[in-house]
Amino acid sequence: MLTPSQLTCGFYLGGHLFLHPLILAFAYTFSQDNPNANVSIFILTFPAKYLPAALLALTLVMDGPYAALLEVTGLIAAHLYDFLTRIWPTFGGGTNYIFTPDFVKRWFGGNVPQRRSYGTAFPAAESGPRNDDGWSNSRGPGRRLG
Questions:
Q1: Which carries the bigger pLDDT value, residue 4 or residue 28?
Q2: b/e map of 28-38 (b: 16 or more CB within 10 Å)?
Q3: pLDDT tens across 49-73, in order?
Q4: Domain-by-domain residue ranges, the chain?
Q5: Mapping DSSP to helix (H, G, I), strand (E, B) and coil, where does residue 46 land?
Q6: CB-CB neighbours of 55 under 10 Å
Q7: What single DSSP character describes residue 9?
Q8: Nearest CA among 4, 5, 27, 3 for reference residue 18
Q9: Among candidates 82, 114, 112, which has minimal Cα distance to 96?
Q10: How many C-beta atoms surround the C-beta of residue 59 within 10 A?
Q11: What's the CA gap between 26 and 78, in Å, rounded?
């Protein structure tokens, strides 16, 4: 199955390297997660929400419109991924159909206790049905606050 970036950049536009669209996709994802953080390019400092546009403008000036068009495919792919995995399931009531495979989670240490200098950090358990009567049976005695 072709991804949106492969379909647009590779098939329609004839792009063979996906590194520049991938960098712009990461910049877009960062700018969506941290819109008010300040970023700097050369001597200019501006809010992160303008970072993808600044990178596109920089590519347009340095490499021309064809290279900028190839980078736009990374922007499209990142926006589609963000919409399908976060916006639609959270606000639209849809289902997230894009899952990280278990073997990839194991490669990057998912669900592995982390040893730290002050103790051991265990990953959160999968959320199941909750008992909303105010009493917490799974974490010991006491009432849940809030």
A1: 28
A2: bbbbbeeeeee
A3: 999 999 999 999 998 998 898 889 8
A4: 4-91
A5: strand
A6: 21
A7: I
A8: 5
A9: 82
A10: 21
A11: 8
Both tokens assigned to 145 = 């606050």
Report the alpha-carbon distance of residue 27 to residue 62 in Å, rounded: 18
The answer to whether 38 and 47 are in contact (CB under 8 A) is: yes
Residue entry with tokens 């819109």: 35
Task: Report the alpha-carbon distance of residue 118 to residue 100 in Å, rounded.
Answer: 30
Place of tokens 């004839």: 14
59: tokens are: 């590519």
Judge contact between 61 and 75, C-beta under 8 A.
Answer: no
- Whole-model pTM over 0.70: no
35: its two tokens: 């819109």
